[in-house]
Amino acid sequence: MAPRYAPSLRSRLAPLLLCLQTSFIVLFCFFTEIQKNNFTAWFFSSLPGFQDVNVMLFLGFGFFFTFPVRYGFSATAFTLLVAVVATQWGIILNGLEPHRGKIKISLKSLVEAELCTASAMISIAAVQGKTNPVQLVLISLLEVSGFILNKWVLQSLLKVSLLNSIMLLHIFGSFFGLLLTWVFYRKGCELQFEKEKYDQKSGLFSMLGTLFLWMYLPTFNSVLVDDRIPGRKLKAVCSTYLALAVSAVTAASMSSLCHPRGKVNMTQMQQCILAGGVAVGVSVSGVQHPWEAMTIGFTAAVIATIGHQYLQTQMLHGFQCHDTCATLSSFGLPGLLGWVAHLLLEIRDCDDQTTAIRFAVFHICSLLITIALSLSTGLITGLLLKLEVCRRPPDNKCFDDQVYWEVCHVQLYRCFVQFLETQLKIFFYFTVSSSRGKKVRT
């Protein structure tokens, strides 16, 4: 029976969140203002992208984490909590520039902050179910700080564009989370935690989150693409969709090949169908033709499936890294593949050898800096959160909603299923209504 009040919630979570939110209100009061220049044109062109990124961040990742049978409430609600806290922090850090005056808040700044938050969501996926809410909030704050520092270093020292520096979020988030899993390693997790299991219904909701991520990933990869160049944003959307389509087909076939009886593994497939979109997202500025995106998607799905089949077990037994959601296979390896593809594509399009060598050196340095900062900040974060003051949950309380939610165990799952069904009906109702309204107006 879980304690009436979990220590991390009653004496730690409430003071932490109240102090954080009060500090954010004060900072936004004195140092921010709404940007009003070019409001009409930029607002209506960027609002759909902003909404799609929101769907990915809250619905996509929220449902994606619901695969444990008894962790549905925590997966969806704590994802919302962590994301909104990290986004506010990202807006502040992204706007900190000397001699700039007040921080200008616009849809673009909100989108940039949410993309930085997506990197934190990838890191949290690696330790999902084994950490308490206090640790999740602190992880998101420290990870967003490290990622924005990495973005600033790449832009200021290596003159990397905003798009290319932010799209390294998959690599940064996966390696950051990998170090967290190494620091948070618990003896005996090779035999799996007591409640680290899933059934058909929880797996279905998790697959639903993956489908949200799959559908809105083209917008995610193209939302920061400069639309002043005709066709560039369309090229990014089409390339991402083609890579995602190819990776979905390839992941299903590879999963069947890896199974001894030729069956498709739902968990393996949902972890790998995003690989093509992740890889193309890192190399989106270098992809010029549809077949290039499709080749990248095919290779990414093969690598992700093989990594999920063999690498995850080897990382657990050989390096003591218990990666809950296989973030290294789902995001890290496809991100590295996208980085290699970007390097090769840009070198191919260079006019002379000197330019190609210069780009290769800067490109390699950007990857080394990203990996170094992600590993170092992940190590520092893990060591800080491993202190006794954070009180991580014991082994028998991991992957369990009853520790954090005032819902009896018998009613927990039924309430969660009813909640999800209601939210999905509302979401699809408004989606269909808006589409019909647009047809009537046209």
Automatic annotation (TrEMBL):
Membrane spanning stretches: 12-31, 43-65, 71-93, 133-154, 166-185, 205-224, 236-257, 323-345, 357-385
UniProt-listed GO biological process terms: ammonium homeostasis
Keywords, sorted A to Z: Membrane, Transmembrane, Transmembrane helix
Subcellular location: Membrane
Cellular component annotations (GO), alphabetically ordered: plasma membrane
Membrane topology: Multi-pass membrane protein
Ammonium transporter AmtB-like domain mapped to chain residues: 47-387
Gene3D superfamilies, A to Z: Ammonium transporter AmtB like domains (1.10.3430.10)
One Gene Ontology term of the molecular function aspect: ammonium channel activity
Main localization category: membrane
The protein's role, per its UniProt record: Functions as an ammonia transporter. May play a role in the elimination of ammonia in the gill.
Family under the similarity heading: Belongs to the ammonium transporter (TC 2.A.49) family. Rh subfamily.
Name the UniProt record assigns to this protein: Rh blood group, D antigen
